[in-house]
Specification:
alpha/beta, 392 residues, binds magnesium ion, binds adenosine-5'-diphosphate, Rossmann fold, 8 strands, eight-stranded mixed beta sheet
């Protein structure tokens, strides 16, 4: 399948020293983690000091990249060809650990301990919708800030929607200094002058919240917010810094999609959103496309041939009733499979063309579906090579 769109030139992006961050985003299961790892490996083997920040690598892929220690810092990956002077580090995001580290870095030890032990914090840091996206951004900011790598390739969390990665930080930020949480804080800061005015209404509000959340949860939340108060500014500042980083010309967003209606629709939204945020889109990776090795034999002719073979296999037509069974059964099955693939390929092409006609300027790279999962460096190299040979 080749869609009618400009070709993505992956090596130009990788080799351009001004590229400092590559972000792979897209909806769930389309190949973000695979693409990020493949690009990081290729960049390292082309001489860059690359670091891959993965979020949810499959176990075998994680093992092959040495992502077994969970200390939330990048580790050098073995088995990488470093003869070009490059290197590859990789890490797997530990969302809770990242959150804990922020608390430890920004609060004095007593207060940090108090926050970390707070049940409200514990549930926020391990399960709040958006925490993973927020922490991915936070970690990206940290890695970029350290300036140890000249290229950081970011994989994004397995959200249903690709947009979550961009929305979550603001959502969490809004939550942290939003109205609800300020309401919760007030009783803990009783004595402020405006309390008198608010008091009557507030008692009603608090009792309603207590009914809904339970006394203990409410108390935990209040304690947490009070302890956390001093850190709000830091959180927002860093989120804004990372946000600006994502808008900088050294960043390249790659939207990954499978050639399926839902994934491509999601990719379309994301492309529009990036434009609205003035974030630099490098292209679309159309992953797991199906091609047939005998593309010149059409589905229709293939099916017709299969039917002819079936005719020969009838008891009165094929084996002469000598009991040897269908002679052409295998050939007919292969022809049918070929026809199916051709039809699938056609469908995928139609879907992809729908995307490219809406976004004609977006460069596209197509990656054929591999016969098996991508679970080691060799598999990643194959994907990297395909990504970079879109001109042929
Ligand atoms: N081009 C491909 N051919 C075959 N398998 C692929 C391909 N791309 C990804 N996969 C496999 O699909 C699964 C999902 O890929 P993954 O990168 O984890 O997706 P995501 O990070 O978007 O959820 C993995 O098992 C991966 O090995
Ligand atoms: Mg993933």
């Amino acid at each position: 399948m080749t869609v009618n769109a400009p070709k993505l030139d992956m090596d130009r992006i990788i080799d351009d020293r001004r590229t400092r961050i590559i972000v792979c985003c897209g909806s769930g299961g389309v190949g973000k983690t695979t693409a990020a790892a493949a690009i990081g490996l290729r960049a390292a083997e082309r001489g860059r000091q690359a670091c891959v920040l993965t979020v949810d690598p499959a176990r075998r892929l994680a093992q092959s990249m040495g992502l077994t220690s969970l200390d939330n810092t990048p580790r050098q990956v073995d088995g990488v060809d470093t003869s070009g002077g490059g290197s590859l580090h990789a890490m797997m995001l530990d969302m809770k650990r990242t959150f804990d580290e922020i608390v430890e870095a920004h609060a004095d030890p007593d207060r940090a301990a108090q926050i970390l032990a707070n049940p409200f914090y514990q549930s926020l840091s391990s399960s709040f919708a958006g925490t993973q996206e927020y922490m991915a951004m936070e970690k990206l900011g940290q890695l970029r800030h350290s300036d140890e790598w000249d290229l950081i390739v970011v994989d994004t969390p397995p959200s249903r929607s690709a947009l979550d990665f961009l929305d979550a930080p603001q959502r969490l930020g809004r939550f942290l200094d939003g109205r609800l949480i300020r309401l919760l804080t007030v009783p803990a800061k009783a004595g402020m002058s405006y309390m008198k005015v608010l008091n009557a209404g507030f008692a009603v509000m608090t009792s309603a919240l207590t009914k809904i959340l339970g006394t203990q949860v409410l108390k935990d939340a209040q304690t947490f917010v009070t302890a956390f108060d001093t850190m709000f500014g830091g959180f927002r500042e860093r989120a804004e810094w990372t946000y600006r980083l994502l808008q900088a010309p050294g960043t390249a967003f790659l939207v990954v999609a499978a050639p399926e209606a839902d994934a491509l629709r999601e990719a379309s939204y994301f492309v529009e959103r990036l434009a609205a945020e003035r974030m630099p889109l490098a292209g679309l990776i159309l992953n797991r496309v199906h091609v047939s090795p005998a593309a010149r034999l059409s589905a229709a002719r293939s099916l017709a041939a299969a039917e002819t073979l079936d005719l020969h296999d009838r008891p009165d037509g094929g084996d002469g009733g000598n009991g040897t069974g269908p002679r052409y059964g295998l050939a007919a099955a292969v022809l049918r499979m070929h026809a199916e693939r051709m039809n699938l390929g056609k469908r995928e092409r139609r879907l992809a063309e729908h995307f490219t006609s809406a976004h004609p300027a977006v460069p596209v790279a197509e990656v054929v579906a591999q016969p098996e999962d991508v679970h080691d460096l060799d598999g990643l190299r194959v994907i990297g090579t395909i990504l970079s040979q879109q001109h042929a």
